[in-house]
Amino acid sequence: MTGAGFGGLYALHKLRASGLAVRVLEAAPSVGGTWWANRYPGARVDIQSLEYSYSFSEPLQQQWRWSERYASQPELLRYANHVADRFELRRDIVLNTRVSAAHFDEAAACWRVRSDVGRSWRARFIVMAIGPLSTPNTPAFDGLDAFTGPVLHSAAWPHEPVDFGGRDVALVGTGSSGVQMIPLIAEQARTLTVFQRTAAYAVPARNGPLDPEREARIKADYAGFRARNRRMRAGFGSELSPHPLPTLAVTDAERQALFEERWQIGGFSLLGAFVDTLTDLRANEACAEFVRGKIRAIVRDPAVAARLCPTHPIGCKRLCVDTGYYDTYNRANVTLVDVSRAPIERIAPHGVVSGGREHRADLLVLATGFDAFTGPLTRIDLRGRGGLHIRDKWRGGPLNYLGLTVAGFPNLFNLVGPGSTSAFTSVITAIEHHIDWIAECIGWLAAHGRQTLEASADAEAQWVARVNQIAEQTVYPHCNSWYLGANIPGKPRIFMPLAGGFPAYAERCAAVARDGYAGFVTR
Ligand code: NA7
Known about the structure:
This protein has 523 residues and is an alpha/beta fold. The protein has helices spanning 6-17, 34-37, 58-63, 73-86, 176-188, 212-220, 222-230, 252-265, 281-298, 302-308, 375-378, 390-393, 427-447, 457-472, 502-514; strands at residues 24-25, 93-94, 99-105, 110-115, 120-123, 126-128, 151-153, 168-172, 191-196, 202-204, 320-322, 334-338, 346-348, 351-354, 357-360, 363-366, 381-383, 412-414, 453-455, 520-522. The strands form seven sheets. The chain has a five-stranded parallel beta sheet with strand order 7-16-8-9-12, with helices on one face. A four-stranded mixed beta sheet has the order 5-4-3-17, with no helix packed on it. It has a three-stranded antiparallel beta sheet with strand order 13-14-15, with no helix packed on it. A hairpin with a 4-residue loop joins strand 3 (99-105) and strand 4 (110-115). Ligand NA7 is lined by residues 133, 139, 154, 172-178, 195, 197-198, 318, 339, 343-344, 367-370, 480, 482, 487. Ligand NA7 binds at residues 133, 139, 154, 172-178, 195, 197-198, 318, 339, 343-344, 367-370, 480, 482, 487.
């Protein structure tokens, strides 16, 4: 198994309990995955912690106490470490070990895995638990190497504290990572210049200490709460129901009142106010315009507010959940530079050049995201049957079946990968579902005397077509997001996650298992 983040930890626990010998190989010197790597100021989860947490152990979910509504990165890392200790996982985790190659040995029907320092392992099954957002994207800016100050990427942040005091900071990127750190850096830096290619929709997190009454209420029936969440399209948010009518079927006043109520509640609840926000562009525009109205009300300079107002559909890129983001642009030491029409030209030794002008900086922050979904696998020398490299297999986009398996790559399971609800679900819910499915599948193979399971090419083609068809019925194709690979130059524009909702997806996976792994070839 590759990766000791939330996916790898639970997979180890579950598969070990099923009687398998499991080894987890982790590149980092610690467990924690995403929450080990993304330690920039303000890093925190954007789904409430009572929902973004494991459900597999009742004692764990009862006893663990989150301090805030949305846990911060250090607390999430403590949680991962607690889980590793509590379930005695460490003895089967090999840290500081990056998997560099995995080749399927057809004669022996097993995988041969190598690390970057030349160690090797043999495995019947491989679970890729490396996370869809684990390969940082560093744009190839001219002159980047010649920048004289530190260059920090949000997803590879230093472990020592970074002192922004008295510094002129340039920051590129206004996705979730940029939106979380911009207010905190602005408070410390002498100046902060933000380079924005696409304006972000951000809704207030309304973070704060976890309400003990709410915690007690949920913990009184945590299993029921989890079950209700699993019936939600996103796998979370069951405490709030959408309006029974479509967005445009209610009066303006009623619509605005509901948007306002959700804005006050905070977080993703705004996107759940009406059922059609993500499927109907006109409905979406009503919600988008509500947020633009908020931006205009918060940001005092109308020209800056106009630049901060997004024009793409809301939710088309992942919604940002913020604390004080727009208000930061009212500070005298913060400048917003729009690079949507004129891209960053180059990085100079002491600044960033855009629109023919050099913006002075002595520290450069890249909050420029990830090569999502495919990057983590294609950078490994991963070869299936006939020596087929995953890079070649996925040249035109990430072919897969059920978002878990790839034809030609027997016994390989890719957790929360392309073709699954992954990024559209509370990811720990998606992880638990995948691992339970994998454990059952491996059990079935053993019970039926089969050594390998492999998606058929037909099942794979149909699944990918279905993922795209579903996406076409939503607003997601109407912007340039990492869901589409559009943030990486040269990457094929293919919609990768499954937008059909978690319950339908889980039911489909269950049906495939019930039907004796329909769509798979087993030998
Ligand atoms: P995102 O959401 O991919 O954001 C990256 C940002 O960096 C985004 O604003 C990009 O603009 C910008 N970017 C990327 N390349 C460039 C170049 N070359 N020039 C200017 N700007 C650029 O990554 P995050 O880390 O913020 O969040 C990823 C996920 O982690 C998030 O969705 C949560 O699930 C947690 P663009 O929008 O592509 O125009």
